[in-house]
């Protein structure tokens, strides 16, 4: 097994290049500018569709509510955060969970903006108070998750269960290979769903599919870590983190306001798990 991982060095080098390229300030600025351009183009396209200026099949695909452009922008931001989450798998469990907190907060904000599409233009609430309640619930949930992230960053220390440098290196290489595989799956699902949407007019469930794949990746990560960190404390902590992220992802399929309630419970659970495993840490880290 060690020799097999050593032979994968070119793949881990490719992952390092992709990771560095994605996280570079230049790439982040370009992606932010691209998001702004797509948002503006989306607004123009929606207005053209409202005026009947778009030919088929674009007229059928394009929405007619300007608020959908806001949802599009936040969807792009969410896609970028998911990519960052995939790359964060190569780091510690605690950092990956922190990234999941960030994505969960953005998802709740995205859900809040999505409710705007249920309101007429120009905005008139009238008796349609339900979308406003959902906006307030999702926004409040996002704020609670943001506070939970701040608490998590304060109490979430990184426990060293691996002391041998060689074992730590092989463990990191294994996680990089898993992250690289996930990135390839992410790109493949994106290409497939884009084809289904633009060519066949179907409504793909991109994020639901990605989060399902991430659940199986989390289980694989626990099994990989158990090979290098077989102690009870390490297995319990890592498995508990997976349960927390699993609850976060299951909340995405729930209806309002249960999606917010499950998200908050997952955040509280992760905070409790982090504090407990740090407070009752073993006296001597196990190898």
The total count of strands amounts to 0
Q: Averaged pLDDT, please?
A: 83
Tell me the series of helices and strands, N- to C-terminal: HHHHHHHHHHH
Q: Strand-residue fraction?
A: under 5%
The radius of gyration is 21 Å
Helix and strand topology:
Blueprint: H1 2-7, H2 9-23, H3 25-50, H4 58-61, H5 67-88, H6 93-116, H7 130-155, H8 165-198, H9 206-228, H10 232-250, H11 258-279
Helix pairs in contact: 2-8, 3-5, 5-6, 5-8, 6-7, 6-10, 6-11, 7-11, 8-9, 9-10, 10-11
Task: Give a summary of the structure in a few sentences.
Helix content is 77%, strand content 0%.
Key terms:
0% strand; mainly alpha; single chain; 287 residues; globular; 11 helices
